Amino acid sequence: MSTPRIELAGATDELLGQLQRIVWDGKATAQPAPYDDPMSLYEEDPDVRVRKWLQGVWRGRGSVTPDSWRLHFVVLLDGEPVGMQDLIGDGFHAYGTVVSFSWLSSDLRHRGIGKEMRHAILHLAFEGFNATEATTEAFLDNPGSNGVSRALGYQDNGVAWATRRGEPGLLQGWRLTREVWLGHRRTDIELRGVEQCKEALGLS
Description:
With 204 residues, the chain is an alpha+beta fold. The protein has one domain (6-201): Gcn5-related N-acetyltransferase (GNAT) (Aminopeptidase, 3-Layer(aba) Sandwich), CATH 3.40.630. The chain has helices at residues 13-24, 46-62, 92-95, 113-128, 143-151, 178-184, 194-201; strands spanning 6-10, 68-77, 80-90, 97-104, 133-139, 155-164, 167-177. A hairpin with a 2-residue loop joins strand 2 (68-77) and strand 3 (80-90). It is globular and about 40 Å long. The two termini are 19 Å apart.
């Protein structure tokens, strides 16, 4: 899928190979720590970090049912891989709900790219898969992610405790319904291969 600024491409091994340097360099994380435990991107040894990150993507490919799946997309900016945007369906066949997760190279943040990524994946969820609602979460001290959710119309969905690197922190939950998304729906996002993807997930 593509927007005027970025493209989200299925995470092939070739694209993952091009993205490895960002993970190896530690540019997929930030301060304060953005992810709850366990998280392969927190591994101190860069070789272990890359290996566990790749294994996580490969597990996602091999564990697909209509009720439980995770789609991994590589974010391309001017044709160069710069991050990842995932869409997760847990109980999707029954409820039509999805969860989004993403990361962006640290040297490209605060330029509106994260917001563009979220617009794109929500378009796939609601327009492509006919989702009923999307959720996401971020620690309270992650203003970038929380700001994107607020700007796209998500509503506060409460907080919950989680650990990150072994330390406790509060996660802010966000919920976006299909009805609210329709009020923010963009017309400049192009989807490709949706029917083939739905067939592979058992959603056809």
